[in-house]
Design goal:
2 copies of one chain form a homodimer.
Chain A (H helix, E strand, L loop, with lengths): L1 H13 L6 H12 L6 H10 L6 H13 L3 E4 L4 E4 L9 E6 L5 E5 L7 H7 L3 E12 L1 H6 L1
Antiparallel strand pairs in A: 1-2, 3-4
Helix pairs in contact in A: 2-4, 3-4
Bound molecules: zinc ion (4 copies).
Chain A binds a DNA duplex through helix 4.
Amino acid sequence: MEKNIQEAENYCQQNGLNLTPVRRKVLEILLEKNTAIGAYEILDLLRESGFKNQPPVAYRALDFLVQNGFAHKIEQLNSFIGCMHPGKDHSPAFMICRNCDSVSEEEALTRNFSVSQIASKAGFTVEKAVIEARGLCQSCSDLA
Amino acid sequence: MEKNIQEAENYCQQNGLNLTPVRRKVLEILLEKNTAIGAYEILDLLRESGFKNQPPVAYRALDFLVQNGFAHKIEQLNSFIGCMHPGKDHSPAFMICRNCDSVSEEEALTRNFSVSQIASKAGFTVEKAVIEARGLCQSCSDLA
DNA sequence: TTCCTCCATGATATAACATAACATTCGCGC
DNA sequence: GCGCGAATGTTATGTTATATCATGGAGGAA
Ligand SMILES: [Zn+2]
Ligand SMILES: [Zn+2]
Ligand SMILES: [Zn+2]
Ligand SMILES: [Zn+2]
């Protein structure tokens, strides 16, 4: 965990990014759990640590972390989870347990994979899968 | 479209479900577009048609439709889209165009597939993919 | 009929999630 | 010192979703 933070520091230094105290703190918060955390819960934890606690504080830090590959948003939960693939344009698959709320990130290599494969490798039983791709449809591609 | 509604009526009748006026109207609204629609936009359209327009009106109807396979929620957009696989426990994959906002539903047979396969079959260029599975993790399965 | 239960809807309020907009601060190169 | 850009401070508001209790109406049992 402390090692992860250190890696994040290094990555930022090497890439002209600024892991400011509040951003670092949010990253620590996210890495401390294996469950997803909502922005307002993060805000509470920030306040406890003496940071300001207006919503933009959390959302700005989260934007930074998500942008730079230190965190992901879990759309189904409106929550966030730590990651450690900085800068990587990866397409992860998340396994969200309905019983213990744990969220595990599995790598979906090169966007070519099957959910069931990934899940079974992780020992996860899928009850419902959300797959949403963003991009360009046929006709919009043709126009370009 | 009118045919879809008719099928929905039939399915409901055969399964003891009640496609009430407001539920039917919401389904019509969803089926009229090939883009996802937010609950509050639906609410506006309901009001224009003389229905009540407090949030629970839309959310209740949407819950019914989603529960019974007449609609899906698009998590990335906090919006809803019509479907016509009533009762089917299917695992669809959605292709969301960032340019024209169209959303197309592709069938992901038996939860065993690859996003890139589905996308290319549909002529869709994937820029980002969200894959979130809900279910039971290894340890929670073991306890059961 | 009367009463009961279930389902759907009505109605009010509030919770939870997220962003807009503008002001301030601070470090850095000129 | 000055101008600039990045980050943060601050206030306000927008957007999405749910909790809760009240009302109504169809259908069955006694
Ligand atoms: Zn990741
Ligand atoms: Zn679990
Ligand atoms: Zn569907
Ligand atoms: Zn398009």
